[in-house]
Amino acid sequence: MKLKIHVIGGYGKVGGALLRGLLINQAKLIDLSVSGPQTKELNKLREQYKVKVSTNNLEYALGADFIILAVKPDKVPKVLRELAGGLANKRTDKIILCTAAAVNLIELEKLLQDKAPVVRIMPNLGIAVGQGLIAWYGNGLNKANSQKVDRFLKQFGVAVKVGSDDDIERFTINTGTGLAIDASYLQARIDAGVYSGLSRKLSELAAVQTMQGLLALMREGLYPDFSTVINAVETPAGTTVEATLVLKERSFTATIIKAIDAGVQKIRAIHERVAQVWK
Ligand SMILES: NC(=O)c1ccc[n+]([C@@H]2O[C@H](COP(=O)([O-])OP(=O)(O)OC[C@H]3O[C@@H](n4cnc5c(N)ncnc54)[C@H](OP(=O)(O)O)[C@@H]3O)[C@@H](O)[C@H]2O)c1
Q: Which long-range contacts (CB under 8 A, 24 or more apart) does 143-151 make?
């Protein structure tokens, strides 16, 4: 029997990435449906992916094995109350997965009135191509459901179970925001290549292929960690030590640490604000 999956907010950025990720290798094994407020956007998804669509969040959700909430945090209470109203009694045959940042698990459980197990998931956009990292956190799952969630999430790339809401927020910044930080670094490398005299096209090739080579070297286990790669390239008194000295002088590491920390502080502030609004 096909696994029934319903995505609420499926034409948003995360919802869209989830749909694509599900359909690239599971299309024949799943029964996928989507809901959201705009008929025009839903119809585009129906045409593109041949999925069932509805403007009514409950129409397909109530029959699904997994219900994924991919709406903004401020929309979560409304949608969860809708679900709680639609689900008859306590159900353990369906699992709700919520992508929202800055909303504690306990708040989700309260809103759902314990009608079904709920899990926080924190994906990044790499899920669209099966190369995502999803951190997940759920308290009230039995062993079978815990395994089911882990198996389900692994199809998007790598899934890791974490132990607290705080860990989920840390992942929000290190993987979600992290994608933008890594893209900013590569964009800067491309600009630097152009500054050195390469065409933009060749500079992009140099930056991207160098990064891919680095990751492959690590993946294949040729180097145990990043510092040994740096040591391998740094000839004494050579060009690389000259270049990496500038990174040290300009506090490259401290800049990245501060960037991640700024994101973490911000998400804590958003969390406080969301908690006030929900009171
Ligand atoms: N973006 C990321 O990289 C990222 C990463 C990890 C987690 N998240 C989390 O994922 C969630 C979605 O983020 P996003 O960036 O994908 O936001 P988004 O692009 O704004 O998508 C949200 C979607 O929810 C729909 N929606 C609004 N109200 C709804 C309702 N009552 N019922 C059903 N659907 C409704 C929206 O439709 P309309 O546009 O028609 O209102 C939109 O399609 C957020 O909670 C965010 O914290 C985001």
A: 145/92, 145/95, 145/117, 148/95, 149/95, 149/97, 149/119
